[in-house]
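Example with several molecule types.
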Amino acid sequence: MTLELALQASVSGLLLGGIYALIALALALVFGVMRVLNFAHGDLLLIAMYGTVLLDKMLGLHPYAAIVVLAPLMGALGWAMFVVFIRPLLASSVLMQAQLTIGISFMIQSAALMIFGADLMNVRTTFENSTWSVGGIVIGVPLLAAFAVSVCTCAFVGWFLARTETGCRIRATAQDPVMAQLCGVAVPRVQKLVFAASIAVLAIAAGSLMTFFHVTPHTGVQFSILSLLIVVLGGLGDLKGTFVGALLIGLAESLAGAAFDSALAPAVIYILFGLALLFRPRGLFGRGSIA
Amino acid sequence: MTLPGRHARRVETALALALVWVAAGAALLTRNAYWISVATTLLMWVHLCAAWNAVGGMVGQISFGNAAFFGIGAYTSTWLGAQFGLSPWLGMLAGGTLAAGAGWCVGYLPFRWRLSHLVFALLTMTLAFVLQFSVSGIKSLGGTAGLFINAPTSLGSMRFDEPAGYLIMIALFASLTVLVVGLLFQGRRGYFWRAARDNEDAAAAAGIDLFRIKQEALAFSAFASAAAGTFYAQQIGYIDPHSVLGLDIAIQILLFAVVGGAGTQLGPVVGPLLLVPLGEALRLNLGGSAGATMHQFFYGAALVAVILLWPGGIVGGLRKAFSARRPAALAPTPDPPPPRTVAPQPVAMAREALIEIAGIGKRFGGLQALHEISFTVYRGEILGVIGPNGAGKTTLFSLLAGFQSPSAGQISYAGQRIDGLAPHEVCRRGIARTFQITQAFPTLTVFDTVLTAALVRHDVAAAQGIADAVLARTGLWPRRSALCADITLAEQRRLEIARALATEPTVLLLDESMAGLTARETDEALHLLRGLREEGLTIVLIEHVMRAVMSVCDRLVVLDAGKLIAAGAPATVASDPQVIRAYLGARAERK
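Resulting structure tokens for the full complex:
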């Protein structure tokens, strides 16, 4: 691997990692506030991605414009999913919830296959082929824009949690739901709100992704696994750890792909994940709840 | 003498076996190649689910990665066959052994360190992914293109001209797995499995070697899954990383087993038996691209519905419905067995040091929970450990019983060091503990709980005698067939003591065994403790009920903020000014 290739891979890896960060952040937030590990997270993203494709095909809507339409719809979907499936199992073990969400993932995936078929779909935009070249490194404009949108959204979420009253309630619920309840926080409402909002945020990730990425019914599982890796790596419930973990995973994935140039590249990421799970069970910064 | 519930477990094994052969027989009778192939697939899932159930259901360690073992079996036998012309039967043994080894490796750290179930589940998933991508990148294993098998048809090559051959073979495989799991489940190991699944702390306190039983179950599960992998490869004649190592396989195993009823013997048979034919029917009736995936949608929906409506799966739900209608099945026994001594050694006249605690400390990150604690427990005494909340009393017990290792100092028991030993090892040497927050096995009866602890050292007949005696002794005899989830707090506290007694200890560590009891219940408990001391048992107890402490203890040690501040006879300690300030004084002031 030449230095140039390594640099190129690092830059695109980090940019991709920024988008992963937004997706994983939504998962981490849900885990933090209700201790539910949602294995259907990527499949909900998948719904938003197909939604973006549909809006493009039917109304010619730009993926970024589609976010405005999709975000409230995804929020409503998250709301419904919470009420019907998640809430009854809030008191169960993480693995019970995992099995339930695996079932949901199965349903979404096969529904997508029935409706859209197995072919990959994408959205054409006017700037899809434009690139910037900085010192020999080529950066795709769509990727850069998606990175910017995702990181800004992450920053907004961070600001919201740190500075607003609702954010304070959410953090209180994440830290100690019983104490939060005793202090007058309506914990069930906070949980419902966070679940719906986290799913709504996936619309932003989907819109950004669809400017340069494609979608197949299998994409959902890939993103479910990917965001699971990131959240565990970052430390369950640790949002900063999740953000850094996402950048690292993006970087590692891209570098491994460049270095090995073979089908076994992804194995590297999983080996890293396994080691992190065993030796950093509280995540990169050791601040997450123990896995 | 038969054990309560053993008959039902035998019937369930027989029923599971019968279902396997009914399915196989029905398909054979149709003489239709299509239905025979559906039944073959179905029974392969039964086999895989039964193998998964050994570890995922019975021991309660959910694996997301049994596809890894399946794939190891498929690839090992296929590769050995292609390279060296090795018979798939030998290849199956090699693959099974390799898979069992892989299982042992993946389970080693999480089980040794007692990491959470989630870590184990995610690690198994990681194993499957690492193998899938690695094999995809290895040319000699065919990479993503996969491997073909071109052996001629014969029993020796596990390949048949007639599809019925495959069906009969997989029915035999599935029966064997169901039978082995069933026999293990009926015996002593079944009690240990259920105990480990229900409550790991209580199981360790009962002397069960959790690491070993989990590793055994995982290795067995891996071996059996790998055997199915070899079978699949020979049947289809082609394997690739996606079809034998993919996540879909692991998920489907889990899904069928959970829908049927994880942890039951019938569940892994019933799950595929209901879902696979229904899925096939959907596929046939819908046709086209919708039919090709509709069954997957249906499988997912079945899993969601079962978890929301019948958390124990179909078999668990049916069992609950049946037992609700049936009155308690235990035959009425006229009288409890005569009480008998649990520790028949005579009381030592001379002061013999039994446990020596020398300068132990325990640090949790920045918190020094215990600091330089030294004292001795003498044989045959009742020693009280008192101190305000947060003084480190329970931490001290955790160190004594092996649930945590001290950061400094050492603990010796009868002259041998015991710090750093695992809880079950400490328990087997003769120190048994109870828990302040009672730790029960929710799906076991009171009798089974005590029996499980007794089975660690004895065979079934002897253990049954001990369990009877302990139940009579602790006054739980009338409640022996109640589920642990259904008994009162006072009974739970007595069950804690009963579980500890059933391990035939020399020393009992009782952590607030009288907390929350009424005055009468406390008196009963005190009576029991005095009786046990007269039989020669040494007792160390943590207690807040001062009446109990003062009346029953020979000596007291007092902890405050992790330090030992006083030790001696109850009356002396009670008048110690430091103790009054730290402990009794705070109380007096509140009044």
